[in-house]
Amino acid sequence: MAILSIDTSAAVSASLVSPQGEELASDTVAQERRHAEELMPLIVRLLDTARLTPEDLTAVVAGRGPAPFTGLRVGLVTAHTFAFARDVPLYGVCSLDAIAADTAQTLGLTAGQRIAALSDARRKEVYWATYTVTPQGTITPLDAPSVAYPADLAASGQLNESVVVGAGAHLYREQLGIDTIADAPTRPSTTTLARLALARLNEDQPATPLYLRRPDAQVPAERKRATAS
């Protein structure tokens, strides 16, 4: 029995995790433009590695982003498809939560320390959210995820006294006015997403996307036909 965890908010990532939170198989394909082509073959490989079949899945977890429309949609649609086909629960977790949770563990942060997790939103912007570390070493979100220009975020004071991590922090470190931490996570771990979902089973965990803005690519409006006068 296993939980399938998927995230396409950045790279193409998936994990198989036991109901107790043990990682059974995990892999990432560093492709930020080929989510649709890479995700299903990746899941098939993981099932083969763990010697499991889709019939062994007991739940599905999906990273909700925030992320641009196209890539994020691929992961969420795939997660919904597996959950529907197997008639198993589907849980959604903010992808930035996984970066923050791994940061707290990797860096050994203590209770009360703040974390700011940033990812690349393209258009020279970042998605961001802040967290505080609990006495148990877990994380508590301080605000809902948002999107901003790095310089505006730095000027807002939201990053003050925070450990700033994530791919967005590395990409825009000069505009943010920060020193990046080499050992800190930059992308969400799908294993961590699954563990967060397990820890929040008593909470509402909708698998709905966090786009935070309109899609980069939009269908053009139909042109009106000219009529003869």
CATH homologous superfamily grouping of the largest domain: ATPase, nucleotide binding domain
Number of discrete domains = 2
Distance between the termini: 70 Å
Q: Which class do the helix and strand fractions yield?
A: alpha/beta
**Rg, nearest Å:** 19 Å
CATH class of the largest domain: Alpha Beta
Return the average pLDDT rounded to an integer. Answer: 92
Question: Helical segment tally?
Answer: 7
Compile the SSE list and pairings.
Elements: E1 2-7, E2 12-17, E3 23-29, H1 35-49, E4 57-63, H2 69-86, E5 90-93, H3 95-106, E6 114-122, E7 125-133, E8 139-141, E9 146-148, H4 150-156, E10 162-165, H5 167-171, H6 173-176, H7 190-199
Parallel strand pairs: 1-4, 4-5, 6-10
Antiparallel strand pairs: 1-2, 2-3, 6-7, 7-8, 7-9
Keywords:
7 helices; five-stranded mixed sheet; hydrolase; 229 residues; Nucleotidyltransferase, domain 5; alpha/beta; peptidase activity; 2 domains; globular
Structure characterization notes:
The chain has 229 residues and is an alpha/beta fold. The chain folds into two domains: 2-94 and 188-199, 2-Layer Sandwich (Nucleotidyltransferase, domain 5); 96-176, Nucleotidyltransferase, domain 5 (2-Layer Sandwich), CATH 3.30.420. It is built from seven helices and ten strands. A five-stranded mixed beta sheet has the order 3-2-1-4-5, with helices on both faces. Helix 1 (35-49) packs across helix 2 and helix 3 (95-106) packs across helix 7. The longest helix has 18 residues, at 69-86. The N and C termini lie far apart (70 Å). This is Peptidase M22 glycoprotease. One of its GO terms (biological process) is proteolysis. Residues 32-134 form the Gcp-like domain. Residues 213-229 have a biased composition (Basic and acidic residues).
